[in-house]
Amino acid sequence: QVEESGGGLVQPGGSLRLSCVASGSIFSIIHMGWYREAPGNQRELVARFTREGNTIYADSVKGRFTISRDSAKNWVYLQMSSLKPEDTAVYYCKVETALGVDYWGEGTLVTVSS
What we know:
The protein is about 0% helix and about 55% strand. It has strands at about 1-5, 10, 15-20, 30-35, 45-50, 55, 65-70, 75-80, 90-95, 100-105, 110. Strands 2, 4, 5, 6, 9, 10 and 11 form a seven-stranded mixed β-sheet that branches. It has a four-stranded antiparallel β-sheet with strand order 1-3-8-7, with no helix packed on it. β5 and β6 form a beta hairpin. It is globular and about 45 Å long. The relative contact order is 0.33.
């Protein structure tokens, strides 16, 4: 019901754009966001929208990543620039609903390496 795409291998300093779509069977979406999980680390917030439509970014990605969305079509995007090896992780999309149910995608792998 939540599907990410756009991951891949990129050189340091490069860019990638991740996409996430929530299926029409998910109702009362209040916000969507991106999280990542690197090997040996816990899943952490990368960027997300608040209920009011504001954005929150992890300090480590501020100024390099930009989250955007098409609310009408339940899409959320993550434009990643100036990528670093430490950005290597599986990136997950999270959909939160007003019903208190969260949905996660299966993740898309981003590898930053020369």
